[in-house]
Amino acid sequence: MQGRVPTSVGENRKSLRVIDGPDRLLSNFLRISDEKIETPSLSRSNPSTSFRMLNFSTPLCVGEICTESGLLIASKRGHPRVVLDGLFWFLGESSLYCFGMSQYYNPRRGKNMYEPGADSPFKLSRSKVDLFIECPKCFYLDRRLGVGRPPGYPFSLNSAVDTLLKKEFDIHRVDKTAHPLMSEYGVDAIPFEHPDIDKWRENFVGVQYLHEPTNFLLTGAIDDVWVNPKGELMVVDYKATSKNGEVNLDADWQIGYKRQMEFYQWLMRNNGFEVSSVGYFVYANGVTDTEAFDGKLEFEVKVIPYEGDSSWVEPTLEKIKTCLDSDKTPEAGPDCDYCLYRDAVKEVVK
What we know:
The chain is an alpha+beta fold. It has 2 domains: 11-104, no CATH class; 113-350, Lambda Exonuclease, Chain A (Alpha-Beta Complex), CATH 3.90.320. Helix content is 25%, strand content 22%. The chain contains 8 helices and 16 strands. The strands form 4 sheets. A 5-stranded antiparallel sheet has the order 3-8-7-6-5, with no helix packed on it. The chain has a 5-stranded mixed sheet with strand order 10-13-14-15-16, with helices on both faces. The longest helix has 20 residues, at 156-175. The protein is globular, with a radius of gyration of 23 Å.
């Protein structure tokens, strides 16, 4: 079955075939620009197969995956995120990819693995750099050997807070005005307006920089950027939790938050921007001392300044390069629960 397609899309994008498990119609149509095209009949697949990717027979334009049976739009920016059976799917060039959940975990990945001596840059995200710091062994198993850690479940409420905060600050970005939180906490700045702001926020794209000494393409998806009267950019990260008392950055495990901020500052500086060493965490804390739920969750929002020091980034990248070039698996991090679990299993399973 074929549908009507805008001429700008091209004749080779007329026919789409959706592949999924038996007897499930994923989508009734894909919207490209303002036109609709109908999806053809469903292709059957092996019922015993757990799908991590839904393939289309032709490339897809970045648009909206719409639903009348099973799909729900979760985001319209960047790669559209689709919710299906409680799982997040992302639109690629010609596929839908699913990340997370046990039956969708691929323990032996065959791509996105480092090859010593390769000419093309190796893409490395901020989270993978942090993984190396946490546990070189898990990092090596993941990026060199293709055996990643099992993924966790998505924090849907945190994502909702993140989305709503971005909407709020975007209103002031357009108006070139300070958000009330900035005034409340004495931050002399406004949200930074830049044509790439949405790209910088997009997962798997983000701010990018090619580090020539290692040939790593470093990436990081930031939450926001503010600019002060001196023209300095200030990196901003949104956080959400629910705890008794004031939120802060004092816990030992929050060193990861600080490294995250510092890595983003390093990326922005290497993209030619003047970046302040002071960044801000916009921290939303869910209130639990109300009398009733009443279908809504209230938050107290605090702005926490943090002065970053990104001097650790370059030496860490050099260590990562040495690690990946080696054929020897490095030692585990001392506090890695995953490695402790694997070791414990080896001791009891004969």
